[in-house]
Design a protein that fits this description.
Layout (H helix, E strand, L loop, with lengths): L15 E6 L4 E6 L2 H38 L1 H4 L2 H17 L5 H7 L1 H28 L2
Antiparallel strand pairs: 1-2
Helix pairs in contact: 1-3, 3-5, 4-5
């Protein structure tokens, strides 16, 4: 199997494997050009510095939404809680679209980021849909 660029997932005869040092680890990256290396390193540093924001968005917002859903069950069938959960988690994933190494191998970082943002958008739509359903159809 031919090696592909970790950023754009393109095959090239001039692939380079380089070691990049981040705060917590040293990673080997396969790149096709300097532009892909710069973008991959920039996103890696962004991900490393914002990983706690990502986890806070995925853990705290559903907890807050769950409390709101239980607290407002008699008022709006918990619709506000579902809205906070869906829109909050979706916004966190859109803002911080971190993907797994397996996703990078399968489609490259650039397409993985796009996929992550699309999933975040679907979560936002699901939260809005649950809000509408609970308010008008229950």
């Amino acid at each position: 199997m031919a090696k592909k660029c970790d950023w754009c997932h393109a095959s090239s005869s001039e692939m380079q494997v380089k070691e990049v040092t981040f705060k917590s680890s040293t990673e080997q990256i396969t790149i096709c050009c300097q532009e892909c290396e710069d973008r991959l390193v920039t996103f890696g540093k962004y991900a490393e510095s914002h990983v706690w924001h990502f986890f806070a968005g995925l853990l705290l917002l559903p907890a807050i939404g769950g409390v709101l859903a239980v607290w407002r069950e008699s008022i709006d069938n918990g619709a506000l809680g579902y809205l906070v959960m869906g829109v909050g988690m979706g916004a966190a994933i859109i803002k911080y679209p971190f993907v797994t190494p397996q996703t990078v191998q399968m489609m490259g970082m650039k397409k993985g980021i796009l996929l992550g943002r699309m999933i975040g958008g679907l979560l936002v739509l699901a939260g809005i849909g649950l809000f509408v359903f609970c308010n008008w159809f229950m």
